[in-house]
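Reviewers of the previous submission asked for a worked example of the structure-prediction workflow described in the proposal, so we include one complete record here. The input consisted solely of the amino acid sequence. No template or homolog information was supplied to the procedure at any stage.
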Amino acid sequence: MELENLRQYFESKLREFTEKEYPKNSRLSEAIFYALCGQGKRVRPLLVLMMCESLGGKKEQAIEAAIALEMIHTYSLVHDDMPLLDNDSLRRGRKTVHVVYDEQTALLVGNSLLTDAFFLLTKSENLSSLQKEQMVGELSLASGSKGMLLGQSLDLYWTSRNDYTKEDLDHIHLKKTGALLGCACALGSIAAGISDQSFLDSCKKLGELVGQSFQITDDLLDESDKTGKSLGKDKEQDKLTYLKIYDKRTCEKEARDLTAEALSVFSSLPLVHSHPLSSFFSSLLDRKF
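From that input alone, the workflow returned the following structure tokens.
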């Protein structure tokens, strides 16, 4: 129930923000609204909020960071789905942005969300100057050429190649998915008033491990019709995934081992309370969509 209440809180705040900032008074604004309000799992923003509360902070301190991170994630999905990259027509159970609008608009939607996310952080009244600076730094690092975009580049490079190693696959997952989940943990910690970099690095490691486990589960769900994404798309495009290297049972074991390692890191952190967050990690491993 606590997780569901937090989810509803985030959805209401995201809707409030979206209606204010993107009031559908232009084609671009309408398309941004469409992209943001698709019903995703909201793993990244929920992780921001839960990490903040686990460290004794309040969700109100972390809401801008949670929305900013969701904007970055959404921008990446909009661009990934375009014909130039994955050429997908279905996302979050709906037609993708470039299908509903057009490719040019989808490109501008992604660019707008990327830029506006950082503006949202800098104008927050809930954060100190130091917190804003740290958050901008962490989000830039996680989403740029050393983080998510590097992962996307590696994903493209290894598509349809056969000279890969498991380390190549892990590197894709670490950067493409793990970087933003690591950032989510760091942003939540900063919102709670943590500024020590070694502590933030431990939080990022936690998120990265969860991200790698999350991505393996995603690989396993590629042929599920309940994900809101196109069925079997990774296999069709010959993407480098865990199922290309291992059988299903081995993949499941790898995901469980990563989650167990994440929970070990999690238990070493000086948290005020931890039950909702540890349960959340386990639910990501056991999800069916």
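The domain at 2-286 is CATH 1.10.600.10 (Farnesyl Diphosphate Synthase). We consider this example representative of the routine output the project will generate in years two and three.
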